[in-house]
Design a protein that fits this description.
The chain is of the alpha/beta class and 446 residues long. Helices cover 33% and strands 24% of the residues. It has 3 domains: 145 residues, FAD/NAD(P)-binding domain; 171 residues, Alpha-Beta Complex (Polyamine Oxidase, Chain A, domain 2); 74 residues, no CATH class. It has a 7-stranded mixed sheet with strand order 7-6-15-16-17-14-18, with helices on both faces. Helix 1 packs parallel to helix 8, helix 1 runs parallel beside helix 13 and helix 3 crosses helix 7. The longest helix has 20 residues. The structure holds flavin-adenine dinucleotide (FAD).
């Protein structure tokens, strides 16, 4: 047997051409790999809609000053000049009234609570934020824990609507540790600065595409990966009926989706088979008038089938959207649920009816468009026990690596955590692949 020593850059397939996939390609190039990105959407990942010449996010997005991975990548891509920062205000809409959730100093201020309730909220939040028993909090379901720590009234008025806004009706058994993480990040605290990129996620995607292709990376759109198989010395992918081999692969897909396309023993090795995902339905309403002044509202009203409302244009200059307001009304729900499967027209009429109910002065004639968007695997419902460390990103001893939403736990998946994970996964892949023989060398040796 004779090993060729011909030096060849190793090729890595990346499943998914959204921000995590393109960021993984970008960082893999820094380690000397040739990435090939496979994206199923016809013209590349499509997080935006177009309306009258401006981009509208399908799901309301913003950036926080803590998003250091994102901010440093924007710097490398020369994009941070297009970021605009504003003070964001949060609220809760209940029975025709809007309550403040971020009106004063301290962890949480809510005019929905009595003064005594506010004090208790601040005090219990401060204590919880200082606890250092993640193992214990990972095994305690959030609902009974918060009822005990804050009392029934504060839970019902404050935390339940906020939890529902994040997990739909599956909030009650997520680990208290997730909640503690949000408090530590200053959930609805006083310094709620939020940033927006002028061109939104489209701008970030395009910046990454240019950087990756400039250095010889390949991005294939309209390329649905039908199955993926781990082989002894590489990875085999079936893309639109054609098989191709790579030295390794990085998957940015939700674990459940990866499991669906994993062939052979790989399927069993994809971690967390019991993990449940929430889907998301969102009505994106574009109007000629501002509806209200807050950026984000929890909706605590069972007569409206949505649990969150954002008006992202309250944080951006009017000229960015040519004077239009962009409102997202959303609900996390299972893909098999009644709401998820309703016709677009019905969901649009719920959205406009809901706006009329919440804001009696709302005039439907100011509406220019209402789009309905759905996402099947929108958010993992964190299981009790938390997420067993999915580190290393490598799936078992295979050549498949993960850059997924679960690796962000106890944080939520954001652009920032996706970029941080893409960097970590690229580094890990480089270290472990360096210890493995190259696919072509082995083929030549046989
Ligand atoms: C309601 C909502 C609000 C959010 N708010 C914020 C926020 O305020 N700030 C923030 O930073 N982040 C926010 N996020 C998260 C942010 O949108 C995501 O982190 C980011 O878009 C990355 O998305 P993703 O991880 O789902 O991967 P995606 O970007 O969705 O990447 C996966 C890609 O894989 C493709 N694909 C799927 N299957 C296949 C296949 N078999 N073959 C090939 N390609 C395939 C898909 O088309 C998709 O483009 C929010 C998300 C939601 C849903």
């Amino acid at each position: 047997m004779h090993l060729h020593t011909e030096s060849r850059r190793q090729r890595v397939a990346i499943l998914g051409g959204g921000i995590p996939g393109l960021a993984a390609a970008y960082f893999l190039q820094q380690h000397g790999y040739d990435p090939v990105v496979f994206e199923s959407e016809r013209r590349g990942a499509a997080p935006c809609l177009e309306h009258e010449g401006f981009q509208v996010e399908k799901f309301a997005q913003c950036v926080t000053p803590r998003d250091q991975h994102l901010l440093s990548l924007l710097g490398e891509l020369n994009l941070n000049g297009t970021m605009r920062w504003e003070q964001a205000h949060f609220g809760c809409l209940r029975a025709g009234r809007q309550y403040n959730l971020s009106s004063g100093p301290g962890w949480v201020r809510s005019t929905a609570l009595f003064a005594a309730g506010r004090l208790r909220t601040d005090w219990a939040s401060w204590l919880l934020g200082r606890r250092d028993d993640a193992d214990y909090l990972n095994h305690v379901p959030v609902e009974p824990f918060l009822r005990a720590q804050f009392g029934e009234r504060i839970f019902e008025k404050l935390w339940r609507p906020l939890l529902q806004a994040h997990f739909g009706d599956l909030y009650s058994r997520i680990p208290a540790e997730w909640f503690r993480g949000r408090l530590r990040e200053g959930w609805f605290g006083e310094s709620a600065k939020r940033g927006h990129l002028r061109g939104g996620s489209r701008e970030l995607l395009e910046g990454l595409v240019s950087a990756v292709t400039l250095r010889g990376g390949v991005i294939r759109n309209n390329a649905w990966v039908q199955w993926i198989l781990n082989e002894p010395h590489g990875v085999c992918l079936n893309v639109e009926g054609r098989t191709e081999r790579f030295d390794a692969a990085v998957s940015t897909l939700a674990l459940q989706r990866l499991r669906e396309i994993a062939a052979g023993p790989l399927q069993e090795q994809v971690p967390m088979p019991q993990l449940v995902y929430q889907g998301l339905v969102s009505a994106v309403v574009i109007t000629r008038q501002q509806i209200q002044r807050k950026f984000w509202n929890a909706l605590d009203d069972s007569s409206i089938p949505f649990q969150v409302m954002t008006e992202s244009t309250n944080l951006t200059p009017r000229e960015w959207t040519r004077g239009r307001s962009v409102i997202h009304l959303s609900r996390y729900c299972r893909p098999a649920s009644d709401l998820f499967m309703r016709e677009d027209e019905e969901i649009s009429s719920y959205a406009l009816g809901g706006l009329r109910e919440m804001f009696p002065g709302f005039d439907p004639r100011v509406v220019e468009a209402c789009h309905v968007v759905r996402e099947e695997y929108s958010r993992p419902v964190w299981p009790l026990g938390g997420v067993p460390s999915v580190q290393p990103s490598q799936v078992g001893t295979t050549r498949v690596y993960l850059c997924t939403d679960v690796q962000a736990y106890p944080h939520d998946r954001t652009w920032d955590t996706a970029i941080g994970q893409a960097k970590a996964t690229a580094g890990e892949l480089a270290r472990s692949l360096a210890a493995m023989p190259k696919m072509r060398e082995l083929a030549a040796a046989v």
